[in-house]
Structures are given as C-alpha cells and as structure tokens.
C-alpha cells in the first residue's frame, strides 16, 4: 500500500500546500488469470499507465494563474480519457442493455468548494463524455442555487442533484458539450459480450445475463479520485452500467452516497478518539510533531495518551465500481465516510469494512454470493488530514493516503505514489507474483507513458 506523504507548509496557522495525488480505476469483478490472458492484461496495463501518467502530468502543470489544476479538473480529465478508451465500461466502450442500447451515467463530488458538492447524471444516450456534463452541473451549481433565472440563455438546474435523460442532455447542449449519434458508443467486443450472455441465460447455463462465473462481464465503472494542493479531494465516476441491465435502470454511479462520496470534517478531541482504534496507530505524526512530542511519547511515531490536544481536519473521497445494486443497498460510499467520520477509523480501514473481503458489500449478497455477481466490487479513494494544535492553531502535521479495497477477483487500478512512481495492478497482493504477469510488481516512470506510448486498443 502507498505510504503516508509528508506535506510542506510555510505558515503555521494556514492549511499546508498538499502534494497533489491521483488514483484511477477501470472496473472490478470476476477478473481472473483464466479470463484475462497476458496479451489482454498488457493492453489494460498500457492503457491504465498511459491515462494515469497523462493525468499526473496535467495535474502538475501550472495554470496561467500559477496555481495547479483543481482536484475537480484533474479527476474529470482522467475519467474523460477512460471514457474515450473502448477497453473500459464507459463512453465509447459502454456495455449494452438487454434491448441493445447504451445508457450512460456519471457523477462528481468534492469535499468543499462548490455549493452542490455532488451531482449525478443518468439515462444519457448522446453525450460523448458524461463526466463533463456532471462537472458542468457542479460548476453551475452556485448560480443555480442563487437564481432561478436563465444564465446566458442556459436554463437553471435549480437545486437538483440528479438529472435524467432528455433534461440532462438539453443542459449538455446548452453548456456546449459534444453530442454524438448513439452509434458512437458501439464496440464489437461489448456487443459480442451482450449476445453471449443472453444466450447463456436462455440456455440455463447462467442464472442471469448480467454476470458470469467464467467470463468477466463488465458490471463496474471507471473513476478517478484526486487531491489538489489546497487539500480538496474529488471523486469522479462514469459508467455504462451492468451488462444487459434493463433499459431505464439507474445504478449507483449517479446516486450520491452509493457509488461515490466526498466530504470534509473536523475532529476536535482526537486525544480521546484516536484514528485507527481497531489496532492501527492513533495519529501518524509529521516531523514537527514528532520532535515536539519526543519527551512524552512511548514511541516517536504514534501516540494515544493526552500530551497535547490537537484538532484534525479530515477530507475523504471514494469512487466505487462493481455490482451497483449492492452499492445502492448498502449506501456503500457514504457508509465508508460515516465509518471514518463517526467511527474514528482511518479511511483505509473504513473502506475495508465495507468493500473488502467479508465486508458489508459481500454480506449484502447473502447466500447469493458467488452466484449472481451481487456484492462484488471495490473502491478507490484518497484521505487527507491536517493536524493543528487546539490552543495555538499551529499546523503540526499533515498527510495523505491512497485507498484501494475490493472483495472480488480483480480491480483495474493505477496510481502515482508519493515519489512520483506509477503503478498499474489488477489483482490482490497475493497474486502479484504470478510469473505470467510481471507488470503487477513493476514500477514505471510517468514521463515514459504520458505521451510516448500509445494506448493499446
């Protein structure tokens, strides 16, 4: 797992400038070496590395204002690239409904900085990049909430958080987003999966045409979570939904709290309510706090006794992928946030309790686990924490951590660590040493992938 990152700060009473972070996912489910042969694995790995590396370069390129791009811009930039790549279940490459059509969904949510904080769009058939519509709706949120009048002839979305179909696409056109003929989303691979699954269901080989015990049928989404230098985290998610879903079905991706979540909060008495109460370290300390606490701590790296009262500002964002109906039933993303916020757990532990093996997602499937695809899935995320002295307001520590938890065969994911090294992986740690898949342990330099290598189709 990624290690906590030390942040730089120049003024003790201000939030430090964070090192920007990025992690992406490309779906989760019954992904095994048997249904992901090395040649196909290499295509996924090349695409993930290219996308995360391009995003990393974009993330660290200053804007004309000299500031770096926001987490909203970074995460939606990454998801746009994923939507444009036919390997993944979003945009060009989205799965088909039982009726042979494509119905797309997307969402974004930020921990702070926008009045609506989170929005979702669903039932889209013509918007080339659904994630850009979600982004536009979030950005227009302030004016939407302040006035019901038209803004530059653009109708207001009012205070609405979730928009469907034609209404959403009218706004997309008014915002100047690219609309396409539905044929744009067609790929032969997805069509073949659609037909094979229906035939297996009809013959009785499988219970449902949305999942197979032998074939990886995309039932997940693509997504990205980013942290910017101001400490804002953003989750961006996009999908074609479940393979062979009913037309009109709405999944977890556009539903706030189910497939995505982001929030920020303060903990005012962490000395009596430490992080990681279930065996993990209470507080991970920065160099400044380590020095300050050296005389009163049993070790220089963690503490639980009261020695100096501190207040924490915590921000957490997660993006989910997998069986969306299970995410809806468990309010999975919001539950992760609640476990972290109200239970006092580290974000990673909270994610594991929900999306890890034997977690709430898996439990929600009951005796159907492993038979219908229910409960399968995973999440990626980022947690950022700033620690201040209660009395003086002095910043005494800051960190950020990446989150990646899943309970199924595999999760397509890629990230750049705190040292600027890129990784792309599919399987859990215990499968990383498979000789056929050396890429699972291979670090990469983003500069080698951000334009020098083509995404393999």
From TrEMBL:
GO function terms (MF aspect)? hydrolase activity
Pfam families, sorted: Asparaginase_2
Catalytic center residues: 221 (nucleophile)
InterPro entries with a match to the protein in the record: Ntn_hydrolases_N, Peptidase_T2
The record's section on Gene3D superfamilies has: (Glycosyl)asparaginase
Which residues are annotated as site, described as Cleavage? 220-221
Binding-site positions, substrate = 249-252, 321-324
Entry GO CC: cytoplasm
The protein's name is: L-asparaginase
Q: Which species is listed as the source? A: Podospora fimiseda
């Amino acid at each position: 797992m990624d290690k906590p990152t030390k942040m730089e700060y120049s003024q003790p009473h201000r939030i430090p400038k964070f090192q920007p972070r990025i992690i992406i996912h490309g779906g989760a489910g019954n992904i095994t070496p048997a249904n992901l042969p090395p040649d196909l694995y290499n295509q996924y790995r090349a695409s993930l590395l290219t996308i995360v590396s391009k995003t990393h370069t974009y993330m660290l390129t200053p804007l004309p204002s000299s500031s770096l791009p926001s987490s909203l811009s970074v995460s939606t930039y990454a998801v746009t690239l994923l939507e444009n790549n036919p390997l993944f279940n979003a945009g060009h490459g989205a799965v088909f409904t039982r009726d042979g059509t494509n119905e797309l969904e997307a969402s974004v949510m930020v921990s702070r900085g926008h009045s609506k904080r989170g929005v979702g769009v669903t039932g889209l058939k013509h918007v080339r990049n659904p994630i850009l519509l979600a982004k536009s709706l979030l950005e227009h949120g302030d004016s939407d909430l302040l006035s019901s009048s038209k803004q530059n002839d653009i109708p207001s979305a009012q205070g609405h958080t979730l928009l469907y179909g034609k209404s959403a696409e009218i706004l997309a056109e008014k915002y100047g987003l690219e609309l396409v003929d539905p044929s744009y989303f067609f790929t032969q691979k997805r069509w073949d999966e659609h037909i094979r699954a229906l035939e297996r269901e009809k013959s009785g080989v499988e219970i449902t045409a949305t999942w197979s015990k032998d074939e990886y049928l995309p039932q997940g989404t693509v997504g990205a979570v980013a942290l910017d230098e101001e400490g804002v985290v953003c989750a961006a998610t996009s999908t074609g939904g479940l393979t062979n879903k009913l037309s009109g079905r709405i999944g977890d991706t556009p539903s706030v709290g189910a497939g995505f979540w982001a929030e920020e909060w303060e903990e005012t008495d962490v000395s009596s309510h430490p992080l990681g109460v279930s065996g993990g370290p209470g507080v991970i300390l920065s160099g400044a706090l380590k020095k300050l606490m050296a005389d009163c701590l049993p070790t220089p790296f963690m503490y639980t006794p009261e020695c100096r009262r501190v207040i924490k500002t915590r921000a957490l964002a997660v993006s989910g992928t997998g069986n969306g109906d299970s995410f809806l039933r468990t309010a999975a993303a919001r539950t992760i946030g609640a476990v972290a916020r109200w239970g006092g757990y580290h974000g990673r532990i909270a994610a594991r309790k929900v999306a890890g093996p034997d977690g709430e997602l898996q439990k929600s499937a009951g005796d159907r686990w492993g038979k219908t695809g229910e409960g399968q899935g995973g999440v990626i995320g980022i947690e950022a924490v700033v620690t201040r002295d209660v009395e003086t307001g002095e910043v005494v520590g800051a960190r950020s951590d990446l989150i990646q938890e899943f309970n199924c065969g595999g999760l397509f994911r890629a990230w750049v660590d705190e040292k600027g090294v890129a990784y792309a992986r599919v399987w859990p740690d215990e499968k990383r040493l498979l000789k056929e898949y050396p890429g699972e342990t291979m670090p990469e330099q983003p500069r080698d992938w951000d334009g020098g290598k083509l995404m393999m189709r």
